Amino acid sequence: MKSTLKMIGAGTAASVLALSAAHADDPVSLTIVSWGGAYTASQVRAYHEPWMEMNPHVTIINDDGSANALASLRAQAQAGNVTWDLVDMLPSDAQLACEEGIIMPIDHDEMLAAAPDGTPPSEDFLPGSLGECFIPQILYSTVLTYRPGAFPDDAQPSSIADLFDVENFPGRRALQDRPGTNLEWALYADGVDPDDIYDVLSTPEGVDRAFAKLDTIKDHIIFWTEGAQAPQLLADGEVAFATGYNGRMFDAIEVEGMEAEIIWDGQVVEWDGWVVPADGPNLEAVMDYLYFATDTQRLADQAQFISYGPARASSSELVGQHADLGIDMAPHMPSAPENYFAPIVLDNDFWVDYGDELRERFANWMLQ
Amino acid sequence: MSDSSPDDGFVTFDRVQKSYDGETLVVKDLNLSIGRGEFMTMLGPSGSGKTTCLMMLAGFETATSGEITLGGNPINSVPPHKRGIGMVFQNYALFPHMTVGENLSFPLEVRGMGKSEREQKVKRALDMVQMGNFAGRRPAQLSGGQQQRIALARALVFEPDLVLMDEPLGALDKNLRERMQYEIKHIHESLGVTVVYVTHDQTEALTMSDNVAVFDDGRIQQLAPPAVLYEKPDNAFVAAFIGENNTLRGKVDAIDGSTCSVRLDNGSVVKALRVNVEGTGVQSTLSLRPERVVLGEGAAERPNSFEAEVLELIYLGDHIRVRMNVCGDDEFIVKVPNNADGRDMKVGQKAPVGWSIEDCRALDPS
Amino acid sequence: MAQADATMMGGAGASSGTEKLVTAEGVPLKRALERAQRRRKLMAFALVVPLLAFILTVFVFPIAQMMWLSVKNDQIVNAIPRTLEELRDWDGRELPDEAVFAALHADLMEDLERPRREQATGPMGIRLNYELSAARSAVSRTARAASGFEAPYKEAFIDAHRLWGDPELWRIIKREGRPLTASYYVAALDRQYDEDGRIVQRDENRRIYVSLFGRTLMLSVIITGMTFLLGFPIAFYMSILPMRHANLLMICVLLPFWTSLLVRTSAWIVLLQQQGVINTGLVTLGIIDDENRLSMIYNMTGTIIAMTHILLPFMVLPLYSVMRTIPPSYMRAAKSLGATPWTAFRRVYFPQTLPGIGAGGVLVFIISIGYYITPALVGGQSGRMISNEIARHIQQSLNWGLAAALGTMLLVGVLALYWLYNRLVGADSLKLG
């Protein structure tokens, strides 16, 4: 059964490759997997549409499957029937997928475009962003937001420490139902320097310390699961604080007009980017697309549609105004200097190594 | 009927009316008195109001107006479970999750009776219907006739003064039905309990009852003992509904005391007993039982005598049904005993028919 | 027809003595019968085959595969066979000797030569990490650097990652260096192996699954009870209504089936949240204070309300179909026998609805025990169920072995409960409508 599927899969892939090699302009359809919503929309406008204009024989099918991409990729690889061409995922997931061998290793300098001034990609992409199988696209962050109406005008919260101060800043807090970000913030609020957080967290005492700090606000927490829930809870007045992705919060505040403020203190920054499934059906077209979609101008273009920072150094000076709102996007980027004063850079290696254990501990803590 | 008279009014309906929709009356002005110990049958076609009457008596329907009394007390506002009336349902309504013994014990239990007394009464009731060995069975393990007996025993086990039966034999085959009719009759006689029995089967009604109330169109058409009902129907509906009946239609020509003469549509004049005729010149239905018609020899001596033609012969074993044309009526039936005369009949043969004045009743035109 | 002939001939043959029974055409009776029945059997088989194949491929096969995943353990065996061979005589106390490290080096070097897709060290690192945090980076970092190692390898490995100097890692390698494992089940029961290989309870702050199973059971029981309490009266009312009105009411009951999850969830949020319709209504009416608004969502209450709502039809439908078949004459009979309406209901009507209650209860219970989307959306922290953990392991942590072990345990639990139900009530009394 399995081997038959594999044979059919391999056969199809081979024939499609053969065809596309023989006739470069034969119709090709690429399945590109991303996070859906405003994020996919920004990719469509910044990457897909201009590229399809240049390559009229290609159609792009958008699949909003990134949230469970790792499981789907593994299932596709095991069934020997890879249907996805390109997947947008987090670097920690990319690391796991890479070690399982289900996505392709990337030679960044070989496969991607250099900066306009000739700087090779390996130097142009921001330090620490490249992965063995991972091509970064944007820098996003998980930020704390609050509802100004929940607090008196002269006592508005301004730091992560305020999140843990229920006495001076009462009200419920909406946090994501996973240990990531929450444990980092607990330590940060407890006085640990952002640079030392993961060193502390890899010791049992550090973990205890983080959970002890979380205990102090436990009765005031509502946990959210889906990214859309956080702004919703804020908008409904259900909570005073909510954590959320900075892009979604930007969208809710600037586009939807929600009453909320972002606290950039202790923002947890992370990359997001592309991985290429091994044995995908249209490798040639995918590499062609990647070369285009990750160049300096394209990454800068994406920032016109969503407030995530481009992953290339050379792109940042090209960031302009929001395409629809006409406001300057630079101040809304996580990487903007006025926002980047106390960032916590998410350590993917740490989370791949300690994630299972900490998730269990976190689930246990939630159950108590 | 035994020693109590039907008039002592153990159960009475006094000007009872019932409507379900507020527009039409299902029961129109019902007046009925049932004596203690009487076996009263409510007979009628479906939709005639007989079952509604029974349900009002049982308490499952309320009378829209009028009063029902039981033992002299009005019971309109007494809930069913306080009326103390036994009831046998059309589908027996034996509780499927209880054994036969538990079914019988149920009415005793809810009355708070002690265990040993219950057992004794259950046993007696089962013995009465010859089902003594079946106490441990479930209703589903019994045949229709057996279920019927159990339902009867259950309705009687708490010794009610009045038992209602709603077409209890409808689901049984013919032989079993006849046997059960006798059994019910015997139980009634030996216990002296009052029974109100609803059926649409006239044979059943005639076999079992002391009195039969014939229902039609929400009214009692006639209330009488079976023999009277058969011999002397008050109106055309009863005559047609009870037993087999020849019907001749015509106009009343003359009235002479208790008799009258009626001119049929083909011009023949028939002399008949005046039962339900208002005066001369009105339409009337003549009712004549097939077994009272004399065919052939002796027919000419009767006060009514006509020439008739044999149209069809139906052999029925003990007798032969002869369909004839009499006075222009093609459906005229005569019953002939299965003897030499009967066997010699031929289709197409002409023969005289005749009957007495007192066997031919002039009724309403219907 | 052939069969009828044969039977008749058979009768004749039997009376004529001991000779073999034959049909009119002289075919032995037995063979004629077999032939006639074979056709019927083939027919029956042909009717069943499509469904059988369907069930096998979409139901039995995946479940079998899931159960296989919960014990499958080839990651380490595939990656380092030589090392495992050398480890065979290791006592599990002190650090293994140089020979083991040399074998490990050889294994890693061989693996590096394989094509990327077939390299086994990656999966091995991920597998080891389930047992010991950071074992993954120990493997991956060492594998990348292994080509530069020189003897003595022991020091080189420990230099590359501290965990190579930890006997715990080696104990795990030795223990899990077998093609089958029970460790996923050990973890699913909140237990772990100690230094001597005994199974002991986990640290208290890492125990989750057993209490989650308990909570899932409890929530399922509560939800089943709620659907019964709400569904019984409505099913009863529908059963005594005329068909036309009953159907209308049925549509209302079935409405949650036809509403998308998104719409349903938003509706609950609008109704139940602290600034929601119900709370605002209660505050306006002065029943509760503005400060004491009720928490009815993002907690256990939310899960119970939402799931009761969704699963109500599964209780109402079997109840209704059973109640429809109970003639009103039973209640009337009971009343005529002297039972008060309440006694008549309790002793006569209610017992007859038991098959419907059983069917509805089993359905609701089994469905709710495996539900996960709704609890994830409205359950907050206290309203989550075991399926949420299973889904997380399938989709996010990718620990399919543990997910499979939890799933298998859930399956076995449900089967056990079903068996118990069968013993106590009898599955043949189930009436699903």
TrEMBL record, chain A:
InterPro entries: SBP. Keywords: Signal. It holds the Pfam family SBP_bac_8. Residues 1-24 form the signal peptide. It comes from the Bacteria. The keyword Phosphoprotein does not apply. CDD domains: PBP2_polyamine_RpCGA009 (cd13589). This is ABC transporter substrate-binding protein.
TrEMBL record, chain B:
It catalyses: ATP + H2O + polyamine-[polyamine-binding protein]Side 1 = ADP + phosphate + polyamineSide 2 + [polyamine-binding protein]Side 1. Signal peptide: none annotated. Pfam families: ABC_tran, TOBE_2. It is an enzyme of class 7 (translocase). GO terms for molecular function: ABC-type polyamine transporter activity; ATP binding; ATP hydrolysis activity. The keyword Metal-binding does not apply. Residues 11-242 form the ABC transporter domain. InterPro entries: AAA+_ATPase, ABC_SmlMolc_Importer, ABC_transporter-like_ATP-bd, ABC_transporter-like_CS, Mo/tungstate-bd_C_term_dom, P-loop_NTPase, PotA-like, Transp-assoc_OB_typ2. The keyword Translocase applies. Its EC number is 7.6.2.11. SUPFAM superfamilies: MOP-like, P-loop containing nucleoside triphosphate hydrolases. Keywords: ATP-binding, Cell membrane, Membrane, Nucleotide-binding, Translocase, Transport. SMART domains: AAA (SM00382). It comes from the Bacteria. One of its GO terms (cellular component) is ATP-binding cassette (ABC) transporter complex. Belongs to the ABC transporter superfamily. Spermidine/putrescine importer (TC 3.A.1.11.1) family. Part of the ABC transporter complex PotABCD involved in spermidine/putrescine import. Responsible for energy coupling to the transport system. The complex is composed of two ATP-binding proteins (PotA), two transmembrane proteins (PotB and PotC) and a solute-binding protein (PotD). This is Spermidine/putrescine import ATP-binding protein PotA. The gene is potA.
TrEMBL record, chain C:
The keyword Transmembrane helix applies. Signal peptide: none annotated. The chain crosses the membrane at residues 42-64, 217-238, 245-263, 300-321, 357-378, 398-421. It is found in: Cell membrane. One of its GO terms (cellular component) is plasma membrane. Residues 213-421 form the ABC transmembrane type-1 domain. Gene3D superfamilies: MetI-like. It comes from the Bacteria. GO terms for biological process: transmembrane transport. PANTHER family: ABC TRANSPORTER PERMEASE PROTEIN (PTHR42929:SF5), INNER MEMBRANE ABC TRANSPORTER PERMEASE PROTEIN YDCU-RELATED-RELATED (PTHR42929). This is ABC transporter permease.
